[in-house]
Fold this protein.
Amino acid sequence: MDIFRCTLCRLISLLLLLFHSETACRPTRGRRHSMGTFRIWDVNQKVFYLSHKQLVAGYLQAANANLEEKVEVMPAESNSVFLGLHSGKLWLSCVKSGDKVRLQLEEVDITDLGRNKEQAKRFTFLHSQNGPTTSFESAANPGWYLCTESEGDKPVSFTNKPKDTTKITQFYFEGQQ
Amino acid sequence: MQVLLRLACFIVLMMSPLKADQCHESEDQVVSIFAANEIFARLCNARLKDKNTTIWYKNDSKTRVSMEVDSRIHQFEDKLWFVPGKVEDSGQYYCIERNSTYCLKQKITVKFVKNEPNLCYNSEALFPQRLFIGQNGLLACPTLDLFKDENNEFPRIQWYKDCKPLFLDNIRHIGEADKLFIMNVTKEHKGRYSCRTSYVYLGKQHHISRVIDLTPAKKTANQHREPVIMKPANETLEVELGSYTQLICNVTGLANAYWSWNGSNIDENDTALVEDFITVKNHHTNTRILIVMLNISQVESKFYLYPFVCEAANWFGKSAAYVQLIHPVRDFQSYIIGIFSILTVVIMCSIFIYKIFKVDIVLWYRDCCYDFFPAEASDGKIYDAYILYPKTVEKESASNSDIFVFKILPEVLEKQCGYSLFIYGRDDYVGEDIVEVMDEHIKKSRRLIIILVRDTLGFSFLGDTSEEQIAMYNALIHNGIKVILLELEKIQDYEKMSESIKFIKQKQKTIRWSGDFTEKSQSAKTRFWKNVRYYMPAQKKAPSSSHLRSRALNWNSTELFEREVHVPLG
């Protein structure tokens, strides 16, 4: 009986193992799927990390490398993307209230959201390539670009003056193959 | 009553700082690691909005950090200062930020490290920075924001690479504010870059250094370019109407890919068209392959109208490739191949069968189709075959060859098959010159049948007789007469035979007699006689039984006549 149990256990664990390996690389079905995870840093070498639930850009030492946020990129419409954090649990959105345009991190199912264009708009960023760097303009608020401050450890935000030297709107991307 | 009111106010006043001390606690995950014996300052960064005050505490979270600027560790304005930091200062510090309504308490960790032996930095304090090979870029001397001067400018910075001063030529390396611009980054730029400066604080100059670990990143081919669709390759696919089909799109590089048809994407609720994908990582080439599958549960006729397009996109561009479904074309090629194969087999079999049953087939053909043969002009020959045979020396007993030649051969070929033979010793006239007779009669014969026997008993075989020579001459040189070799016994050694026999033997095979030499009646249907008949000329008319009988009668009368003729001359 014990032998039988043992064999059964092994069989089950083997099945689970096989199933796991198969499902591990199969995200939920959907027309949109991630282009992959990218390492992102601004042209001043600042990387993204979360501090008090805010996305900030700063210089992280090797000892803090685990805090670095990598960006999940999901194509939206042509030339535009959704930008996610934490393997696509949190998504960057651009929200305007009054005169202020601010960055929000929202926990949404982006593939579900993708169908509703109006809903998806604040999550949509038009990307434009500038040599080795990329900039992201909010689709919901045209003219507003994702930016970091020239100083370190400041929140990531939006600017409508991309040529302002205190704001950095150009980012490097490197795919995590 | 007033007393009570005052008491209540007092209690409220007493309680309020207590309430404010109920701070929301958090911990800064970022550990600051800097060189010892250098000035260091940092902000609380608890990110409280509209903060009024910041208070720093030592690692017990109760003892306030000194506000005296002479103190090595002190608070000045809202920053915590180490002037300079010592290794023993490493540890936890707390800061509390307050506004009118809220309070945030944050634990921070600071670590001061000494330089490693023979190095100008400690590897623990490294700031990793990346630049792309072949591009221009910059390194930033990090966390110097608190050391700007009154004009909000950075102090002058010296740059070092691997602890050696870096020459700023303003062409390849340009120093500006807290940045080091590097033109055309190469692999050789990899290394540890130190930036050093000094800061005058309260009238005293202090050192500041940071160390950067620069990795020149290689732009891998498929990372920074538009996706490549390996499959499909704008192709057609033969699919039966109503069948199940799976279309596969293989894309390399970081990209998104999906199928579309007739200008629209595949609807997720569509049950006829189901899209699915997997990603496969090739560990050898360190590339990712995205495989997008479109399962068509039942091919509908409309699917043949427009192609299925696989579109792949990343922010470097888009790619597309299509598959056009087509109705299957009957495969003529395979049909032709099939027919040819069958034909080949049939021909091979026919050849094989013909090889085996050649004799039977030819004889059957002669029997059946003789009536349809066109009437041939006479060739001027009288005999179907001239029989050349060894003459026995001993006359007492009839030899096997005599029995064969005089009994068996005429019995079958003449009586049963209707051939006319010339047998010397039977058909010649007494007194005739043998050489003349032979020459004359061989010419009148269509075939020359040579009877071969073993030359063991020492009797003279065809050997060198003039008869044989004439026969051979006619057979070989004139070539107008075909030779049939009949072996009455197995002859192993042809060496003793004459050259002409050897020559004929090389040219054609012999027919060996397999029966006995008794005088019982032979059947023309045995293999031996079939072979002989095969080599014999086609009969003008297959002998019917009545015809045979009449022929037999004729032959008998001829025999009688010949015997009669022989008698007076013998």
Summary: Confidence is low (pLDDT under 50) at residues 9-20, 456-461, 542-570 of chain B. Helices of chain B lie at 2-20, 332-369, 400-416, 434-443, 466-478, 499-507, 527-535, 545-569. Residues 165 and 197 of chain B are 13 Å apart (CA to CA).
